[in-house]
Amino acid sequence: MIGQRVKVKTEEQIAAEQAWYGSEKVWLVHKDGFSLATVVKTEDGSLPEGKVKIKLEHDGTILDVDEDDIEKANPPSYDRSEDLASLLYLNESSVMHCLRQRYGGNLIHTYAGTNMVVINPLSTPSMYSEKVMHMFKGCRRDDSAPHIYSVAQSAYRNLLTTRQDQSIVLLGKSGSGKTTNCQHLLQYLVSIAGSTGKIFSAEKWQAVYTILEAFGNSSTAMNTNASHFSHVVSLDFDQAGQVASASIQTMLLEKLRVSRRPEGESTYNIFYYMMAGADSSLRTELHFNHLAENSAFGIIPQSKPDDKQRASQQFTKLQAAMKVLGISGEEQKALWLILGAIYHLGAAGATKAGRRQFARHEWAQKAAYLLGCTLEELSSSVFKHQAKGLQHSTSFRGAQDDGGQGDSSGSKVTALECLEAMASGLYSELFTLVISLINRALKSSQHSLCSLLIVDTPGFQNPRLAQQQRGATFEELCHNYTQERLQTLFHERTFVQELERYKEENIELALDDIECSTSRSVAAIDQASTQALVRTLARTDEARGLLWLMEEEAVQPGGSEETMLERLFSYYGSAQGENKGAGLLLRGEKPHLFLLGHSHGTNWVEYNAQGWLSHAKHNPAAQNAATLLQDSQKKNISGLFMGRASGATVLSGSIAGLEGSSQLALRRATSMRKTFTTGVAAVKKKSLCIQVKLQVDALIDMVRRSRVHFVHCLLPKAEAVGGGGEPRVTHGESPDSGLMTLDVGLLRAQLRGSKLLDALRIYRQGYPDHMVFSEFRRRFDVLAPHLTKRHGRNYIVTDEKRAVQELLESLELEKSSYHMGLSRIFFRAGILSKLEEQRDVKTRRNISLFQAACRGYLARQAFKKRKIQDLAIRCIQKNIKKNRGVKHWPWWKLFTTVRPLIEVQLTEEQIRGKDEEIQQLKQKLERVEKERNELRLNSDRLESRITELSSELADERNTGESASQLLESETSERLRLERDMKDLQTKFDSTKKQMESIEMEVMEARLIRASELNGEMDDDDTGGEWRLKYERAIREIEFTKKRLQQEFDDKLEVEQQNKRQLERRISDLQADNEESQRNIQQLKKKTQRLTAELQDTKLHLEGQQSRNHDLEKKQRKFDSELSGAQEEVQREKTLREKLAREKDMLTGEAFSLRQQLEDKDLEVCAVNLKLDQLEAELQDLNSQESKDEASLAKVKKQLRDMEAKVKDQEEELDEQAGNIQMLEQAKLRLEMEMERLRQTHSKDIESKDDEVEEIRQSCSKKLKQMEVQLEEEYDEKQKVLKERRELESKLLSAQDKVRSGDMETEKRLRKDLKRTKALLADAQIMLDHIKNNAPSKREIAQLKNQLEESEFTCAAAVKSRKSMEVEIEDLHVQMEDISKMKQALEEQLSRVQREKNDVQSRMEEDQEDLNELMKKHKAAVAQSAQNLAQISDLQAQLEDALKEKQEVQEKMQSLQSQLEFQEQSMVEKSLVSRQEAKIRELETKLEFEKTQVKRLESLVARLKENMEKLMEERDQRSSSENREKEQNKRLQRQIRDTKEEMGELAKKEAEASRKKHELEMDIESLEAANQSLQADLKLAFKRIGDLQAAIEDEMESDDNEDLINSPPGRRRYCFSRSDDEEEEEEEKEEGGAAQGSYHSRFRYGSQIKDDDSEDRPYETTS
User: Fold this and answer.
1) Residue 1213 to residue 1215: CA distance in whole angstroms
2) Which residues pair with 1649 in a beta bridge?
3) CA of 263: how far to CAs of 90, 257, 260, 349, 463, in Å?
4) Is the distance from CB of 598 to CB of 517 less than 8 angstroms?
């Protein structure tokens, strides 16, 4: 699965792994870490459910633990795996164990899928040398070990191959080594990529970081050299892949660290460097001879001698770095002056009470002198402006008019705060100036193609991690917020975009355990309200982030940190009784403290909000710092800051380093400006709090436009940087002295916060590598040469998906290793790298073959050249010999003397003319080059101007949009307030009426009471009656009150009882709910664990399947080899049989020879017997002595004959014996060879049989394991087949219905066709009638137009009727589909539609191929015509040559005749020889002249070719110049047209009024003509109606015949086309008369419904 290098395992390793798998090893997770253990097998029921018995490895302790506390362990071979994604079991403990083992072996880099994990070492290892850099140069990621250089090489390789911007983002805690890794990345890129002219060297970048560390770093409790600003390094690369230019953008600088910082931390390093390393003259100039004992800013010289010496060395190094970057001495002096002024301001201090002024004026005087101003100006800039009060960043309506509010807010600002604001403003301006000077040294005017960004921000800050008992500051919150946003970007790129891409490509991937991003903690900081654009002071209940709350509370009259935190808790705080897991915001132990959970709640940071509202208020002292520096009396200071003020190097006082003249730099600056000028940013961009969000938005937006590579930097332990204390050791495991220790708890928190395990899981389970079909085919078709040969190298593919499928089938990839999407192909991890490796091997082989062919061609050409040279040498030698023969001949001397004098003048004139032409061409070329360079400069200048104007236009457009949004929001707010005011007014009126009615009742009651009293005085009888009524009413009221009170008490008691019951029930339900929640959490954890194990098992199974696939491929390869070996064995058998046959033949021959030998032996024996007899007879004769000499001579003769025969027979026997011996030796050699071949073959067969047996055994084991899965798959397959049969039956029924519907539609269309044809015929008859009876051309044209209008209306009516009928049919079909499985039918219909589209696409491809063949045929015809013309030219030249040859022959004949005449006249032989020599000389001279002529002709041809090339280049340059001039003219015309539009509007209005009057007159005349033609038109309509009725009657009778005779679709098409052609011919005949004045068009559209129900209109136009 994962692309790992295959390593051969030894037998010991295999045995150890088998033993490991035999014993189930697990990790026991506990609070101190994790321990290795072995699961002890127990009987069923001996342990409670959910419990497991394990045995610890280190001490053998047996424990009963929960199943949730153990995790599966990997074999020892995975302990130092280079890629965490390659682990067999992916869990937290295994990942931490692998990281710890690698860290202990000084392997601090580890791959994590596509990301890199780097653990910061305690000591700097020697792994960053130049030799190591060149080891990674040009390597792919899979071929290199994990290293930070590998990330840089991967990004650089992607940049070169894709030409897309790349970025590298470093994530991690403070002190985890992000800045160091950033320097290593830059060093590698600059060293490997190089630059034009070597303007960017490693030394220059080292100088850049020396300056940045001096001005932006300081020592903290977490890090001895911590960065306090975020920066982005941009490297721009040209077409060749070299660094063309570079720049640095900085943001989120901690300005207040100069004057105020946490206890125990230092200020920026530059102050200590300057105080320790300045020489005597610089000290005197800066007034550093006597330093202050205390400072309001806490800037005190270092006391330790070692620290002073180190700071002095750093200052020397800093000055050398500034010289390397080209910062002059005066510019350095300006920097030291500003730093010295900041120090003296701290020494001067400020008063704590009374008037705001400096506490020690002598130090303030020194600061004013260094800044180049007076003490009064400095004091006024710091303190005097405060009468206006602190102004908030956003001006609110109504707030500016209240002057008292400003005074009250201004009185709260102390003198020390004003002084701190001035110091922070000065340092901010100084830091921006330093960044500008650095960018000045890095910028270049070269053209750049794409860029690579490296993002380095301060890491997560947590004082509690460094054992500090303080709350985090606002600056630390900003840095943590930046890290959270980068983590959110990582989550978006790793999870969200991948899942969305899978969803778009219809790839199903089950990932239920992926958690959400860090959006909750980010929202608690920067969430904006929907009313963010509305300028209002009212508090609303809508949730918003901390930054927005700070901005609102800073301008509220009673705003404070307490109210801000209360509102924040009301929006994001957790409910009562909830813990940290429920919410990400908690209250602290003290009022101003609160806790925020970063990194998914794994990093809880306690913040102290005391004094945070001061960060949301603008202090004018900080703004006056820039003015003070620009107005300085010192030229070196004012010159630097005045020049920088003219350019836009700072964006809203936030982002520094926006310089740069290259196109990419301008694009980055425009992108950042757009972030600050769009939407809410246009209104809030000057708010100090909202600037934090906008800066991070600009950073994220710039990074999001590129391909991002993430590097996770991990902190090994907090004690390494934060203080003392022994490192924690895992429980039960002794720390190895050779391993560097790790804080397991800290490492676990960082892994959980970065979500690396989830990223690894989606990397393993998903398809991380993907390519577009066309790109994949073009890149990897070299691996399938048979497809390329079949289609051709540059073939065009219409169906890329099908082509890719064929390519994958030829590559024999495992089906589970890739997935085909809709537009691209997806691969498992490592598969694409394997294909790339195969492609590289194939490409290297092809290149080798190409090189061999080229070398062979060059060798043959060199051989031909040598042959030509040899021939030339022989010719020269021959000519030299000839020359030596005639060298002393007087006539030859005369000829050689006179001939050059004749031609020298002509040759000189020709050379002079050619030289003049060459000089003219050179001058013209120089002039053209000069003009070209000028035009290029002009075009570059115009392009830069256009980009500037476009950026300004975009800014103005964004500003206008923001203003319109602001206006709309204010309008809506005003309307809402008006509605609220109306509602309140109505309520007030109703309340007023109620009050008036109540007052009237009270007045009436008072009058009644007064009348009662008066009545008692006047009449006692009447008063008694009223008194009795009154008393009775009082008694009734009291009784009613008592009764109601009793009822109320009873109800209250009942309700209280119910309440107590409900409370008890609620408490029980809460307990049950908590118990169920705990159970749910446990089950969820168990489910996640089981899911992870299941996924690991699936991946392991897929790995086994891929291995099985590889083994099958090897098996097939082995089978092919085995078949080859068997064929060889068969051939050997045939050879053996042949040899056996030859052996038999030789044996037979030997037997025959033996027979012949035996026969000869018998003959020899017989001869010997005869010899013995003859000797006996001789003895007898000798003894008798009676034989005469004649008989004796006869006997001797016979004896000699017999001896000769014997000798001949002996020689033949010797020859036969030699032949037999040679045959026996050959037989022995053949038998030995056969035996050797038999032995080797038997050995090969035995070894291959052993290999086959081993492979079969392993495959049988794996097949047995997969049989169960195959059975399950078979059952599922049966179910799927059953469903498929059901769907096919439904599809057939649906097709029958669709076919019947098509028949009905066909009938209806046929009727419409005939009706339309009849209408056309009638219309033609009417046209003929009108033409015959036409009084004039104008009336004919009018009648035609009216006829067209009537036909159009008729066609529209027919079309509408057809559309209504089609809609009705569609409704019927839909109703039927709903009742009969609509979804299945639609799927089947879509499949049929796709098949039809495929057929149509094939037909289109065939048509395209036919067109291409026709084009090739035409090109061949044209080429043949050209060849014929060339042949005719060559024939003419050949005839001329023949004529010249005839003339030369005639001359030769005349010379020959003269020679014969001289011979006949008996001339002296010397004269004849001289004539012959002269003839030979003339022939050689003629050949020499011919060669000279040929050489001059070739020279002239070359000069003509050069002239033609120069003319072509001149024409091209002139055309390009003309195009540029035309473009400039076009732009000028557009501008001029834009200016003249307003003037043309008035003219158009006048013309419109005039045309209106003319049209009114024309309308009056046309109305008169219209009335005369309406009668004719009515007659035409009546005829049309009669014809329609007649056609409908005919249609009913002819319907069946048409259906039988021809296919419907083809017949309708042919009829419509033939009618159209007839109408075209007739209209062409009729159009001759009216062509001069009128142009009539008649359209006839018929909708023909094909099998795919598509309407195709056909039009004919005349």
Assistant:
1) 5
2) 1655
3) 43, 11, 9, 19, 11
4) no
**How far is Cα 412 from Cα 400, in angstroms, rounded to an integer?**
18
DSSP helix, strand, coil percent of the chain (3-state; round to 5)? 70, 5, 20
**DSSP letter assigned to residue 9:** P
* 339, 271 contact by CB (below 8 A): yes
- Compute the residue count for the chain: 1662
How many C-beta atoms lie closer than 10 Å to residue 842's C-beta? Answer: 15
In degrees, rounded to 5, the angle at the alpha carbon of residue 423 between the alpha carbons of residues 420 and 425 is 105
What single string gives the DSSP state of each residue in 112-135?
ETTEEEEEPPSS--S--SHHHHHH
1621 contact partners, CB below 8 Å, separation of at least 6: 1660
Query: Please, what's the largest Cα pairwise distance for the chain?
Result: 234
Q: What's the pTM value of the predicted model, to 2 decimals? A: 0.60
Pairing of strands 707-714, 115-119: parallel
User: At 404, is the pLDDT very low, low, confident or very high (cuts 50, 70, 90)?
Assistant: very low
The owner of tokens 């026709």 is 1414
Residue 271 is predicted with a pLDDT of 92
Q: From 288, 410, 400, 403, select the one nearest 339 (Cα to Cα).
A: 288
Alpha carbon 1600 to its chain centroid, in Å, reads 63
Looking at residue 1487, what is its pLDDT?
A: 75
Q: What is the SS3 assignment for 1606?
A: coil
* Structure token pair of residue 1438: 């050949």
User: For residue 736, what pLDDT band results from cuts at 50, 70 and 90?
Assistant: very low
Six token digits for residue 1388? 């089947």
* DSSP state, residue 493: I
**Which two tokens mark 1258?**
């392993």
- The answer for 1342, left when phi > 0, alpha when psi is -120 to 50, beta otherwise, is alpha
Name which of 710, 760, 828, 769 is nearest 513 in CA terms: 760
Count Cβ atoms within 10 A of the Cβ of residue 669 and give its class: 0-12 exposed, 13-18 middle, 19 or more buried.
buried
The answer to whether 189 and 152 have CB atoms below 8 angstroms apart is yes
Tell me, what amino acid is at 491?
H
pLDDT tens across 1596-1616, in order? 655 555 544 544 444 333 333
Find the radius of gyration of the CA atoms of the chain.
53
Contact yes or no for 478/252 (Cβ under 8 A) = yes
Q: Which residues pair with 33 in a beta bridge?
A: 30
Of 570, 546, 422, the C-alpha closest to 484 is: 546
Q: Count the neighbouring beta carbons within 10 Å of the beta carbon of residue 357.
A: 15
Burial 203-238 (b: 16+ CB within 10 A, else e): ebbebbbbbbbbbbbbbbbbbeebbbbbbbbbbbbb
Among candidate residues 589, 211, 220, 558, the one with its CA nearest the CA of residue 405:
558
| Phi, psi of 936, deg, nearest 5 | -65, -45
From 1581, 1608, 1624, 1588, select the one nearest 1314 (Cα to Cα).
Answer: 1588
Query: Which amino acid makes up residue 13?
Result: Q
CB distance 547 to 482 below 8 Å: no
Candidates 296, 523, 314, 272; CA nearest to 424 is 296
1003 burial (CB, 10 Å; 0-12 / 13-18 / 19+) is: exposed
